[in-house]
Amino acid sequence: MTNNESISEAKQLIERIKLKYPEFVDKTASESDIARLERKLNIKLPKWYIELYTTVPLIGAEFGVQEDEPIGDYDGVSYMIWGSVDDIIEENTEYEPGTSALKDGYVFIASCSHGSGDPIFIKLNSDEPGVCRIYHDDFTKSQLAENVVSLFKNAKI
């Protein structure tokens, strides 16, 4: 995964969201937000992650991922809302599975927007950071995308 590819796919996703939802208010993180995030989580964030949060207005974006096979009326798509820096800090320092996930290298990225309460994380200390949901009842992981590029590229609006 290249830095440019993840940024490019994220920007294209935001454009798709804006086309469907013109009222979408886009937000990015500031450099000071990122510094606070690194300090609170006690980690060094990769350059691509910092660039993603500071240049692409993903914060608050809602989109889906094909999590399950469609069955009957259920299309199998799970929707998420991309988290802010405050959300990331809160999920990874105050709640489970976030605090345990952080110890394993997973950082919160999105919350379920349809009520499951099972947050979505990305594993940052990996060459190909996979995107997964971590269930709060037993901390099992369900992979949603191989990496953020495929998450953005295959997102359902």
TrEMBL record:
Domain Knr4/Smi1-like intervals: 29-151
Top-level lineage group: Bacteria
Pfam families assigned to the protein according to its UniProt record, in alphabetical order: SMI1_KNR4
Transmembrane intervals: none
Gene3D superfamilies per record: SMI1/KNR4-like
Protein name from the UniProt record: SMI1/KNR4 family protein
